[in-house]
Design brief:
Elements (H helix, E strand, L loop, with lengths): L5 H21 L5 H38 L13 H37 L3 E5 L5 E4 L1 H7 L3 H4 L4 H5 L2 H11 L6 E9 L1 E14 L2 E11 L1 H37 L4 H36 L6 E4 H18 L3 E5 L5 E4 L1 H18 L5 E8 L3 E7 L22 H6 L6 H10 L4 E6 L5 E8 L14
Parallel strand pairs: 7-9
Antiparallel strand pairs: 1-2, 1-5, 3-4, 4-5, 6-8, 9-10, 10-12, 11-12
This protein binds adenosine-5'-diphosphate.
Length: 462
């Protein structure tokens, strides 16, 4: 079909009307008013046809543009028959496609930002200049226990019910400083310490509100306080033998005393020096362990349990025989555990050493190993004084002792069990205690079973 431009069509219509007018003028049998009416009717018909040929494609374009704006992907655009309309349709279509492309890019960007926003460990809250909550990420919603969908636009204080946090938001909005800092306490199940940083949010030179960043520093503060406590405890433990050594040495130097008394004092000094040496060894061991832990998981290898236990027994054999203590072993043959041999042997030794230290002379210590469906258990059972239940929870803490003077007299440092616990946990295991006063103590190391050996290719069915 031939397609003409709009201008050509108008010209053709005009020419047609003129020809028709001339023809009507030549119709002598019709009166002038009738000729006028006929001409008007024909002119109206022609204008109607022209208006339709412009209006229809415009209407098609409007519908297509509306469908595209509504998010429809497969939109059919009309192909107008006039050149001008076709060009207009093409231009609008290109514009709509460009716009749709830009909208899609912005939507993707927003989704990306939302997922970054939500995956952050820090809580983020955005408030408007009137302190109403505009947005909050997942971490903030968890920390402050609200659902952003139901509180958006509501006053911050009313939602979070924390005057300090609301005050920090206010100070950030007033821009008292480029960065406002403070800390708040939250009680969601347990007490949490939260550090808050607030800053003003601007966009296009206008203040949009304030951004609050919430970091949970509970663990960090707890570690700091453990460290301070540890330094204080360690200094105290080191100071005790040093004070004694100094005191006895000064007494020997300043007084005339019989040789056997000097000998006695020297023996006391030697005992305190030994204690100091053991304490320093244990502290170094702890430091080494923490350093190893910081380097990632331990290198574990399948190790026979018998080897570990015999090694530990050998190390404390001299002390045991001095007290006439028997160490019995019940170990299933060929049992393997995933272990860092040196570290696990040290943990077993610490338990055995305590058993020897706190057991009466002529008693028996039993080391019993058993394998359950999910674990390998190493029990160290003694016939010593036993430990009252109220101490069970804290006994694995550093420097915790049931009987301080007894432990010191026996050369204890208060670190043996905490080192053993550390070592066993580094193997993915744990230590438990069953004990009561007068009934001896059983410390048990629980270790996960080693993974089954890989099925060998030989003998496998073809
Ligand atoms: P210590 O060097 O003082 O033995 P540990 O950390 O090894 O330090 O043990 C902590 C405390 O637990 C000891 O001081 C002691 O009071 C108690 N304890 C540990 N093992 C036994 C045991 N087998 N029998 C009785 N008490 C024990």
């Amino acid at each position: 079909m031939l397609r003409f431009g709009l201008f050509a069509r108008l010209l053709a219509a005009l020419a047609a009307v003129m020809i028709v007018a001339a023809w009507i003028g030549s119709l002598g049998e019709l009166s002038i008013p009738s000729r006028m009416v006929l001409l008007l009717l024909i002119a109206a018909g022609v204008s109607g046809l022209i208006a339709r040929s412009i209006g229809r494609p415009l209407d098609g374009m409007r519908r297509a543009a509306q469908a595209q704006a509504g998010g429809e992907i497969e939109v059919e655009w009309p192909i107008p028959t006039t050149r001008e309309m076709r060009e207009l349709s093409n231009a609008v279509q290109t514009m709509a496609l460009n716009l749709q492309d830009k909208i899609r890019t912005i939507e993707n960007l927003l989704a990306e930002q939302r997922s970054i926003f939500d995956s952050m460990a820090e809580g983020l809250i955005v408030v408007d200049p009137r302190e109403r909550i505009l947005d909050a990420n997942r971490a903030a919603q968890q920390m402050l226990q609200f659902d952003i969908a139901s509180v958006r636009g509501r006053d911050m204080l009313e939602v979070v019910r924390n005057a300090r946090l609301a005050n920090l938001a206010r100070r950030a909005l007033r821009e008292e400083a480029p960065l406002i800092e403070g800390s708040i306490m939250l009680f969601a199940g347990s007490e949490r310490q939260i550090q808050v940083r607030g800053s003003l949010l601007r966009a296009g030179g206008r203040v949009k509100g304030a951004l609050l960043v919430l970091s949970d520093v509970t663990r960090l503060r707890r570690l700091e306080s453990i460290q301070t406590e540890f330094v204080a405890n360690a200094s105290h433990e080191l100071k005790t033998p040093v004070t004694s050594i100094k005191g006895f040495a000064e007494t020997i130097a300043s007084e005339d005393m019989p040789p056997d008394q000097i000998k006695r004092y020297c023996r006391i000094i030697a005992r305190h020096a030994d204690q100091l040496g053991t304490l320093i060894d244990d502290l170094l061991e702890l430091a080494r362990l923490e350093h190893e832990e910081g380097r990632g998981p331990l290198n574990l290898a399948p190790t026979p349990v018998t080897e570990l236990i015999e090694g530990a027994v050998e190390t404390c054999a001299a002390d045991a025989s001095r007290k006439n203590i028997r160490i019995e072993r019940v170990i299933p043959p060929d049992l393997l555990v995933q272990a860092h041999a040196l570290f696990l042997q040290r943990a077993i030794f610490n338990l055995l050493d305590n058993a020897v230290k706190y057991s009466p002379a002529h008693s028996t210590i039993r080391v019993i190993v058993e394998r359950t469906d999910s674990e390998v258990l190493i029990h160290v059972r003694d016939e010593g004084p036993g430990i009252a239940p109220e101490h069970h929870e804290r006994i694995f803490e550093r420097f915790y002792r049931v009987d301080k003077s007894r432990s010191r007299k026996l050369g204890g440092t208060g670190l043996g069990l905490s080192i053993a616990k550390h070592l066993v946990e580094a193997h993915g295991g744990r230590i438990t205690l069953v004990s009561a006063p007068g009934q001896g103590s059983t410390f048990t190391i629980h270790l996960p079973l080693p993974p089954p050996p890989p099925a060998s290719a030989e003998g496998a069915p073809p």
